[in-house]
Design brief:
By secondary structure, the chain is mainly alpha-helical. It starts with a helix and ends with a strand. The protein has helices at residues 2-39, 49-64, 77-86, 111-121, 124-129, 132-143; strands at 104-106, 151-153. Strands 1-2 form a two-stranded antiparallel sheet.
C-alpha cells in the first residue's frame, strides 16, 4: 500500500516536470511564430505574443537590472559611503554612467513603438537556436545603443 502511494507520487512529479518543460517550449515556439508572422506582414496587430513578450522583457530588465553590463567598475569606499549617507542607506543607487548600461531607450518613444521596432528587427533564425533572453538583449543593444542622448537607461 505504501509502495503504491510513493509510486503514484513519483509518477505525478515526473508528469508535472514533463508538462512544465512542454509549456516552456510552447511559449518559445509561439513567440517565434508570432514574431515571424509579424515580420512577414501576416500579423499586423501591434498587440501580439511577440510584442507583448518584448514589452515584458523590457519591464523585467527595468525591475531586476538584468540589462546592465556585468563589467561595472567598483565604486570607491568613499563613493559607497556618500551614497549610503545621502540616500538613507539605499545601496541600489547607481551612477548616471552610460557605459554600465547595455541599451538605452529614447524617452520620446512609447513602449509599444519600441516593442514593434524590436519585433521587426529580431533575427528569427537566431531565435530558433538560442534562448529568447539573449537574442532579445542583443537586438535591444543593437537597436538602442547608449550614446548619451536623452534616454531611459536600462
Amino acid at each position: 500500500m505504501r509502495h503504491k502511494k510513493h509510486l503514484k507520487r513519483n509518477a505525478s512529479i515526473v508528469v508535472l516536470m514533463f508538462c512544465s518543460g512542454l509549456a516552456q517550449a510552447s511559449l518559445k515556439s509561439s513567440v517565434i511564430d508570432s514574431c515571424q508572422a509579424y515580420q512577414n506582414g501576416q500579423d499586423d496587430n501591434k498587440v501580439n505574443a511577440c510584442t507583448l513578450y518584448i514589452d515584458g522583457f523590457i519591464d523585467s530588465s527595468l525591475q531586476d537590472g538584468s540589462a546592465k553590463n556585468d563589467a561595472k567598475q567598483q565604486k570607491s569606499e568613499y563613493m559607497q559611503r556618500v551614497y549610503r549617507t545621502r540616500t538613507f542607506g539605499r545601496t541600489d543607487v547607481e551612477t548616471n554612467d552610460v557605459a554600465q548600461h547595455s541599451f538605452c531607450l529614447p524617452k520620446s518613444d512609447d513602449r509599444m513603438a519600441v516593442a514593434v521596432d524590436v519585433a521587426k528587427a529580431i533575427d528569427i533564425e537566431q531565435l530558433k537556436g538560442s534562448d529568447l533572453k539573449s537574442v532579445l538583449l542583443d537586438t535591444l543593444v543593437n537597436r538602442f545603443p547608449c550614446s548619451g542622448k536623452s534616454i531611459a537607461r536600462l
